Amino acid sequence: MKHSNWLCAGISALSLIGSAAAQEASPDDPIMFVVDGSNSMWGQMDGIAKIELTKSAFADMLPKLDASRPAGLVMYGHRQTGSCEDIELVSAPATKNRSQLTASVNGLSPRGKTPITAALKTAADALPDGGNGTIVLLSDGIETCKADPCAMAQALKEKNIEFTVHVIGVDLRKPADKAALACIADRTGGTFTDIETADSLSDALKDTTSAEGKTDLIQPLRYELRAIDGMEGPVIADARFEILSAADKQVIASQIEDGYDFLPGDYEIIARSGERSGTLETRILKDDETRTITIVIDAALPEASLSFTPSVPAASVLSIAWEGPNGEGDYIELLDAEGQRLEESYFVYTADGAPSLLRVPGDAGAYSLRYVYASLNAPLVTEPLTVTPALASLTLSADAEVGAFVDISWEGPAGEGDMIGIFPAGTPVSERNPLNYERVAKGNPVRVQMPGTEGDYETRYLTGNDMTVLAAAPIRLIPAQGAINAPESAALGEAITIDLTGRFNPDQDYVTIVPVGAGASAYQEYAYTDGSAPVILRTPIETGDFEIRIVREAGDQNQVLFSKPIAITPSVATLSAPATIAAGGTLNVVANGPVSREGDDDVYIAITGPDEGAGSYSGGYEYVITAGETIAITVPDEPGSYELRYIANGYQPTILARQPLTIQ
Predict the structure, then answer these.
(1) Are 436 and 422 in contact (CB under 8 A)?
(2) Strand 495-502 vs strand 526-528: parallel, antiparallel, or unpaired?
(3) End of a domain among 278, 297, 316?
(4) 518 has pLDDT over 50
(5) Which one of 44, 192, 647, 655 has the largest count of C-beta atoms within 10 Å of its C-beta?
(6) pTM confidence score
(7) Cα–Cα dist 73/55, whole Å
(8) Which domain holds residue 456?
(9) What percent of the chain lies above the pLDDT cut of 70?
(10) What single DSSP character describes residue 46?
(11) Which of 7-11, 334-338, 420-424, 651-655 has the lowest mean pLDDT?
């Protein structure tokens, strides 16, 4: 057998690696995270955008990563649309950069392509000692920049035996795509984790960070190569084969006569006999059982046809009638104007039935549909498709109060995951992170909560498949209108009546009393209100300068709508009771001061040990309903020194008055 020699040396080197496989990574093993920021990360799993699941998983994992373990981060596809050079080295491995890594992942706004190969090289170059360490790659798609990440992974492993790549594939729908990412892990002794549900991503990320690479690597697989004359023809004995990388068409081996040792990956194989030739693109899997690859020369391919509306609105669902062989794995896919696969994979298997339903992209433009005969990876028919601007609109009021819920009427495709979100005015359409949003599936109109800061904003209809903006409408947020009427001062523990004017929502607006200058999220005792009736609150547990506030929970932040100062003065409550009483007797107590609010048991007389906390009532208690009334309370049977307390229970129990009590 004749072939070129450059790849064989690499294969031989890998085959000599030892067989020990560790179970858990060393706590000081440098680790680089490579995070997918490509546009397809806006796709959803279980109704949640994959990018949001990724942010949540990292926020959960990073604080638990061993503090002594150096960690770094590379992100790609997050700054430019359509660029294969959009790769950012956020940080080389370090131990004091956790907040930087978390903030960078949280700031991801997917935009572009998937240059996995170059991102792996960037991450490996950041590892110490020529690539000694671990890379964790998280991606929802395969390489889209005409490069071969499997070949890069192999080259990096050959350079440093201590180099490993673990791969987390997120929502990879095609088995072939899973295999393409698994190949990266296979060639470096790493693990491949296939994520198919939203709740499994966080656990997978934590588990992967503790996994150690195997030195027992995937070995080359021997395949017989043969060529046949036509689909059902005889074997061509004099055929010679050339093997290329499917990604970049680089020749790996040539003039092969009968067989070849393949590592898992994507290949293009050309068979030649005289002046005739045939080509096959194939994917080698590590668990292949069939070890024969057949290339057809002068193949007579099956016939197929596609029938569909040639021009449809963006983000709509296209019905495709088709005829074809419906072979195992056959599919219909959408391509861009240049015949290239889109960043987000748009396809449907023919086995799912006819007609096939396929949601088209949110971007208008020229596309094409093709039927792919999977057994030969051969397109059987390609037809043009024009995607026109979407038929979508939004109708809403021109202004609204900060933090208010606004009803928005909409027209649009109503596809799975479509939403209406709100952005600051002037936000680029490439920014896909709304301040607040609601799914259109909730109804029409849909109710969306506005942010808590006044100013100019824009509501947008966003598609659920690729977060394209189909329609937009402005809205101005204005200060809330209203006022607070309440006393200027009140005694500690007193219940005060607060009258309100204005429009309020009892699901988001509440009244509370807090110290002057406290943050917008601060609260003590509180009550939600619609403003139609007074609110009665018990004063705070200490004296000083406070303010009554109406606070609106506004989604992204709390907004103080109105406030009014109030001075909290010392308690004027008094207790009158004997200082000594026989064990088990009845103590008559007169309490002057605050009483329980109607329908509430929040003021009481208690007997307790002198050193117990303010909320204790270990020796018994009775409620105070009417000021100045005589309250009879049974004392404990155990003689000793106790304390009689007058307690108001608001945000926390407050002792308004106390006196010693001896039980004999």
Answers:
(1) yes
(2) unpaired
(3) 297
(4) yes
(5) 647
(6) 0.60
(7) 13
(8) 393-477
(9) 95
(10) T
(11) 7-11
